[in-house]
What we know:
Blueprint: H1 20-36, H2 43-61, E1 71-76, E2 81-86, H3 93-98, H4 118-124, E3 128-134, E4 139-145, H5 147-151, E5 163-165, E6 180-186, H6 205-215, E7 232-237, E8 243-248, H7 256-259, E9 263-265, H8 266-278, E10 295-300, H9 302-307, H10 318-326, E11 330-336, H11 340-350, E12 362-367, E13 370-371, E14 390-396, H12 410-422, H13 424-428, H14 452-463, H15 489-501, E15 508-513, E16 521-527, E17 554-555, E18 559-566, H16 567-576, E19 584-591, E20 600-604, E21 621-625, E22 631-637, H17 638-646, H18 652-660
Parallel strand pairs: 1-7, 9-10, 12-14, 18-19, 19-22
Antiparallel strand pairs: 1-2, 2-6, 3-4, 3-6, 4-5, 7-8, 10-11, 11-14, 12-13, 15-16, 16-17, 16-18, 20-21, 21-22
Amino acid sequence: MVEVGVPLFKWDPLDYKPAPELVGATIKRQIKNILKSYTGWYDSLSELIQNALDSIDARKKEGEEDYVPNIWIKIDMQNNLVCVTDNGIGFSDQEFKNFLAPNVSFKTRETRGNKGVGATYLGYGFNFLQIGTKTSDFSFIGTMKGGREWVEDESHTKPRPQVQADTEALHEAFQGIDRGSTFALKFIGDLIRPKDLTWVGASNAEQWGTVLRIKTPLGGIYFDKECLLQNCNLMVIDESGNETHEKIDDCSYIFPHKVISHCIDLKEIRKKQQELIDSGKDDSKLPDSFHKLNGLYRRWNANDIISRDAGLTVRLDEKEKDLINKYNINVYSFFCYSTDIWDKYNDGVVNIRKNARILRGGLQLATNNMPQGDLLMIPLTKNTGFQNVTHSVIHFDEADPDLGRKGFQPELRDLSQKIAASTIKPFSNWKKLLKTETGAPPDIVAEKAIYDWIKEQEYHEESHPLVINREDLFLPLKEPSITSEPLNEQDVISLFNQLLAGGVIRGIKIMSTSQHQKYDGIFKFWTKKPFENHIFDKKVNPLGIEKISVPDDFVSAPEILEYKHKFDALIEEIEKGDKNERDIKLVIAWTMGNQWKKRYDITPLLHFDTYHHRPFHGATHIVKDSSTGDLIFYAIILDELIKYINSPETVQDYQKKTYMEEE
Length: 663
């Protein structure tokens, strides 16, 4: 029964004034909900950097002459401390006193964040936060301690933490700026993520720079905009106290094609095809530089997605088209030949925590020029393996993710996954241009040929190994002992073995050489630590293979090799039936000659556009069947090799005209 009282016609729920004892509990519950929305180990780093970027953007918009935006980042693993300082706009007195409170924000739609939860997360999600600001009329440095402990205190006995004034900033960079802000965050106490900065596995500035450019706003996504930040100064102190420094002048997201060699934009393929058509040639006969690629990539803008004229065949309803236009959606996708690419980059190049895969297959959502949240799965109903070799980035202009960095509205997330899945079809149409996944180094592991000779030699190698343990031998003399160019096959054999012993060629081990067998020798492909000795460098190691393709300790099955003074002589033996080209894996010759043109296509590995085809250190040519394009064998042409290592730049025209241009 409703009691008779004062009639209740209308009221404003926001006029409710809770009792004072309930205010603290209400605020604490509000802050807890904010903290729950942050789920990534990198979220604290993202918020610190995002605030710095918004600060310098705001100062840049003031139109100040000669202003150069800068941020400084310090990662101290000895003290579990991260500091970020910027020379941006700074805080006013009133802003500084209030910005840590939940849902208080002085940002606008033009900034990266505007919900007023990031600063609250930094202040109350951790137990130590130092903040400082410096402007023309206000300066302050202070520390708040025990924020997370207060939030998690169920007894409600701990007093609310306050910001206590400090005399000096923990980040040295703050002393040198005329205006801006500094934040210093320590990872101490329970429920802190990450508990230990060493967990990531990055221990120096170069590694941390990569991590920050992939997982935080330091890796800005600027499809149609300019990045205002051109200078980021990163200092890292490892567990032992060693300092490393990195000046990052490319503060943009690390798209896979930027760090994985020999990848081609789908638009370049179309362009090359049109060039072939215009010159009256077969547009399916793409040059060697378009084959054996590590990956393919492309970017599509909002019009490309909707019009379906750029290779995408995604079916969209009118609501989805409106969303694409409203948020000016852009998509980038990268498609690689194998998930081994991610392992090679993460474990071999970045060299962080094993199997961390800081860069991998999946869908990265982004808004306001920065990545947001963890990778999503790209949904496929067939060819599901392509999910793991495809890395997509979809960017929205001014879309609001949920509190913290959890994710986007369901309709945007679903649309993004739909678009990302549609990008795979254009790539799969050109999958033939990618390297073949074999589970071993491409093109250098074949089935063992069952030759009695090979079996005998394997037994001999095992039972009578040649071992020389002295380290003072085989020192380079900087010149071969052969004083003139080879005149016959024996000279070729002698010179080749000197190049092996001198370390000029590093990817081959000789098992046997014979004058009595049908073929000249048996060898193995191999790689051995230090792997840097096998990695291509135009100046210091021009015969190397690309970094992403260097296998771990590897020894192939025994293979057959042939020596010749001139490659033409082997062709004559093959045509007479004396030799079977399918038995041979490697040919060593002084000169190439001209007879190859009537039987083979040659991929020159001494040209900078095609070196990525090189399967082992020292290879100079790939010989293919001209009618089928199948691999026949590899070649090392010593005359061309020597000219190349003496002056790589000067042989480029010869390699291109001789092997890459049609007559």
